[in-house]
Write a structure and sequence with these properties.
Radius of gyration: 23 Å
Order of helices and strands: HHHHHHHEEEHHHHHHH
Largest sheet: 3 strands, antiparallel
Number of strands: 3
Shape: globular
Structural class: mainly alpha
Low-confidence stretches: none
Strand order of the largest sheet: 1-2-3
Mean pLDDT: 88
Length: 301
């Protein structure tokens, strides 16, 4: 049933590879839990079983740490999808997982770094004139200029860049594509990399159309891209915890603080729902409060 469900997600729903990997991992843990509780038939599962699995995820055991609300919610979403699929395929009559709600995570504001810190980070990435330094600067400039997810950036192919028009075609979750503007600084950095660095790196590989290459001429991995960012942060002397998603958060936050409409930011980020994007309006309100408190003569008291 799990194999059929994940095949359905891959073929009919076009789910991304990372999504499928997460579903398989979460459902493997669900199957292990069912085995632990002595359930060997899909028909024997009831709502109490699913609720028990959620409790098991949140408390953990000797072999598994307790999951955070967000991770447990992701696993329950996978389980609910599996049970819906079982009903659709006529394996069972009732969806016993329907009433088990994923835990709600406390709402956290996105972590963004200041515009000055972004500038220091980007300068540190391209401090040398080597092929790898040119690549690193181009990668980080592109991340901040477009708000691309790290998977979108490392999966980018040369034909998806239009430097004359200063746009880039990004392939997001579920294969959804969007064309977004590329700022002049990013366009210049990418152009310098393509002309002065990529041919040198590409000569070491077997030929790939991916834009960002590693030292052996192959496609740069997400893990290596994270290392690029962390190295640049260290060189820039930034002490805040910085991940590839930090660049995306900073991109959105700085746009909102600059007066961009939330719907425009939604399109640029590739969010299917504006609700996801509206988290950045909270950041803007906090910033407005700071300015108001420091500037208005009767703000205090």
């Amino acid at each position: 049933m799990v194999r059929s469900f994940t095949d359905h997600l891959a073929v009919e729903r076009g789910s991304a590879a990372n999504t499928l990997s997460s579903y398989r991992r979460d459902l493997a843990r669900y199957l292990a839990y069912l085995d632990l509780t002595g359930i060997s038939s899909f028909a024997a599962i009831d709502s109490a079983t699913v609720s028990g699995f959620l409790t098991y995820l949140r408390t953990g055991d000797e072999e598994h740490q307790a999951l955070s609300p967000a991770s447990a919610a992701r696993a329950i979403v996978a389980v609910r999808g599996l049970h819906r699929f079982a009903v659709r395929d006529g394996i069972v009559v009732h969806d016993v997982a329907h009433e088990v709600r994923p835990p709600v995570s406390p709402r956290r504001l996105p972590k963004a770094i200041s515009i000055d810190d972004v500038a220091r980070l980007l300068e540190a990435a391209g401090i040398d004139d080597t092929p790898l330094a040119l690549r690193d600067r181009a990668l980080l400039e592109l991340l901040y200029s477009t708000g691309a997810r790290i998977s979108e950036a490392v999966g980018l192919v040369v034909d998806e860049l239009d430097l004359a028009d200063r746009t880039v075609l990004l392939s997001g979750k579920g294969g959804k594509q969007r064309r977004v503007p590329l700022g002049s600084y990013a366009a210049d950095a990418v152009q310098a990399y393509l002309v002065r660095a990529r041919p040198t790196l590409a000569a070491k590989g077997r030929g790939t159309h991916v834009v960002f290459l590693n030292a052996r001429g192959g496609a740069l991995s997400r893990q290596s891209a994270w290392t690029v960012l962390r190295s640049a942060a260290d060189k820039a002397g930034l002490t805040a915890e910085i991940s590839p998603h930090t660049m995306r958060h900073s991109f959105a936050t700085h746009l909102m603080e600059g007066g961009a409409d939330v719907r425009v930011v939604q399109e640029l980020l590739g969010h299917s729902s504006v609700t996801t994007t509206q988290i950045y309006t909270l950041v803007t309100v906090d910033r407005l409060r700071e300015v108001y408190a420091s500037a208005h003569p009767r703000a205090l008291g």
